[in-house]
Amino acid sequence: MFHRLLLLFAATLCAVPAGADPYKLGTLVIDHPWSRPTAAGMPMGVAYLTITNHGKTADALIAASTNAAARAEFHQTTIVDGMARMRPLTEIVIPAGATVKIAPGGIHIMLVDLKAPLEKGKSVPLELEFRAAGQVRVALSIEAIDLAPAGM
User: Could you tell me the pTM of the whole model?
Assistant: First the structure.
């Protein structure tokens, strides 16, 4: 019985993705940037993360880029009449004192025309540009597709 519990505990620890320390840029905190692995030949990937604005004024994510793809675009998925619809966004506003989750099923960053597959266990750089706070480079962790990321 004890051995089974120990094995279950060890398996649980292995199933939780390792979270890196959050990135700080002025009053913004960028937490857990991640993506799912892609198959060879897949032209698109996706980036997710959480942004918290500890400031007294709103800011906006106005651009993103990575050397892993030709370009990055902002999109929002919504369900309308039972059908998923994706629309482009020109920016992602982070209100003062708020947290915005860029997560599956909602706002996300599409990585268009991938140069190579995104491989589980690796990471790629992602440059984020905010209207007020400026630019920050984060490491986009490629995590297993079947795991729910920490804090999401």
Answer: 0.82
